[in-house]
Description:
The protein is of the alpha+beta class. It has five helices and eleven strands, in the order E-E-H-E-E-E-H-E-E-E-H-E-H-E-E-H. The strands form two sheets. Strands 2, 3, 4, 5, 6, 7, 8 and 9 form an eight-stranded mixed sheet that branches. The chain has a three-stranded antiparallel sheet with strand order 1-10-11. The longest helix has 28 residues, at about 170-200. Keywords: Metal-binding, Zinc, Zinc-finger.
Amino acid sequence: PACDAPKPRPRRVRGIDLESSHFVSFAQASLLPPGRDAFVVLADVIQDVTGQTHQLYVRDTDGRDVLLKFHLALEVNERWVQDEIPVGGGGMVCIRNPRIHRFLDGQVGLRIEDHDMATNFKYFAGCDIASFKRINEKLTQSLCEPKCEKCANPEARSLCSKCRCARYCTRDCQQQHWRIHKYVCNIVKTLREYEELFGTNPNPNIS
Length: 207
């Protein structure tokens, strides 16, 4: 990862606002009007219940277990299962604009199709919602009180060029810290990209 000086882009130099109306639970997503395309469901992967179709149980931010099914063409399925779809339990999924679907067995859950995989679905192994919230809070604090993520040097002025949250005083510090930072870096980068898309398509407040 490259380390560069912060640029005057205030929308990017901050933590992720997980309390905004764009980040919703399964129940909240099911109440959004058709065509609304500015929200994300975060969920922990709880159990792999794959049969003829790849499917999981995930737990959303309200603690509700939800069925998540992948309906993919065979060639797409083979590629994505190998690289991007959770196998077994553990990890966190980020689903942008998910479709609420009633399956043939009567269960209501989330359905992922071929075209979702490139832009609307992300799987992050080795992390869960609780851990990410703690890390995001720490990153937000470090932006308010700049210090190097590796050595705590208060003179840290450079930002990770991918997530633009983590600060470092030298390239050496960034390289040494990458083993720890890489797990959250892609999550922050993904959610930040979603936030910026949402900036031009605001959600109504959801209670």
